[in-house]
Design brief:
It is a single chain. It is built from three helices and twelve strands; from the N terminus they run H-E-E-H-E-E-E-E-E-H-E-E-E-E-E. It is of the alpha+beta class. The protein folds into two domains: 86 residues, no CATH class; 169 residues, Lipid/polyisoprenoid-binding, YceI-like (Lipocalin). The strands form two sheets. The chain has an eight-stranded antiparallel barrel with strand order 3-5-6-8-9-10-11-12. It has a two-stranded antiparallel ribbon with strand order 1-2. Strand 10 and strand 11 form a beta hairpin. Helix 1 packs antiparallel against helix 2. The longest helix has 20 residues. About 23% of the residues have low confidence.
Length: 287
């Protein structure tokens, strides 16, 4: 039997068994009245947002339970989804590349499908995470990797650490000083590509808090494919570490760590590259 027909035959047989089981499918709930999982009382000093206490006396007395009378039904559902998943696009695998590695391409960063996250040590006890919610950028991947170009711009006022008072503190003159330095910019000055991993090694200048520093970021092209709205997209990711003191942001060194771990996952929409991104060709000497 041809492979395609055999696949259809298996799906039909599983569907028949599934329908048979569903006619006898039963379940019930045994749900108690659970108290709140967490009863927190937070007291905040008017002068400092860092002083807070939390009490967690509540415990879960009973658990919600779902008991299935026919466990074979669960197995059949799982098998059916496993068989039909690839045919219906339920697979979580990356989009198939629609462009070859040798093709030049230009991407405009899509902020709605990008995440710029950072982590910093708090008093040597834990890590505090935050994110910048507004970023833009352009990526040009040349046929020759050395012709590639990466540019990013971050709106510093969009910082979000899940604490409004802390965010306002970070935006102030003691840290980012948003009034005088509202943007963080990165412009690449050199790009190479690892022949084995395919990873781009991007070096360039990051301008933050009025200070420019040379940094290096390894950028992985996760995949290129057609998105849900029919546009061609590229997905990228990079992780690197900065020293905040290198940029003149050195307040509260005993409480806040100096190393900032950055994770930037972003998508770009394929478009036409502006002339400034295209590699410059040297005119031939006719003499």
């Amino acid at each position: 039997m041809p492979e395609g027909l055999f696949f259809i035959y298996k799906v039909i047989k599983i569907a028949q068994l599934l329908l048979l089981q569903l006619t006898q499918f039963k379940f019930h709930f045994d749900v108690g009245q659970s108290p709140d999982l967490l009863d927190s009382r937070t007291s905040r000093s008017s002068s400092s947002y860092t002083r807070q206490t939390m009490d967690c006396p509540a415990q879960i007395n009973r658990h919600s339970v779902i008991r299935f009378r026919h466990p074979r039904t669960v197995a059949l559902i799982a098998m059916l989804l496993w068989f039909i998943g690839p045919a219906t696009g339920l697979s979580q695998s990356p989009l198939e590349n629609t462009l070859t590695a040798s093709e030049a391409r230009f991407f405009e960063v899509d902020n709605d499908h990008s995440s710029l996250i950072f982590a910093v040590s708090h008093a040597g006890l834990s890590y505090t995470y935050g994110r910048f919610e507004k970023c833009s950028g352009q990526i040009f991947l040349g046929e020759d990797p050395t012709d590639s170009n990466f540019r990013f711009e971050i709106d510093v006022a969009s910082i979000n650490t899940n604490n409004r008072l802390r965010d306002e503190h970070l935006q102030g003159s003691e840290f980012f000083d948003v009034k005088n330095f509202p943007k963080i910019n990165f412009t690449s000055t050199g790009v190479t590509r690892n022949a084995l991993s395919g990873q781009y090694i991007v070096t360039g200048t990051m301008l933050m808090h009025g200070v420019g520093r040379k940094i290096e970021m390894p950028v992985t092209l996760i995949g290129v494919g057609i998105g849900p709205m029919g546009k061609t997209r590229g997905g990228f990711m990079t992780k690197f570490v900065l020293q905040r003191s290198d940029f003149g942001i050195d307040a509260m060194p005993k409480t806040i760590g100096d190393q900032i771990a950055v994770t930037f996952s972003f998508e770009g929409i394929l478009g036409d590259a502006p002339a400034e991104f295209l590699p410059q060709t040297t005119p031939r000497n006719e003499n």
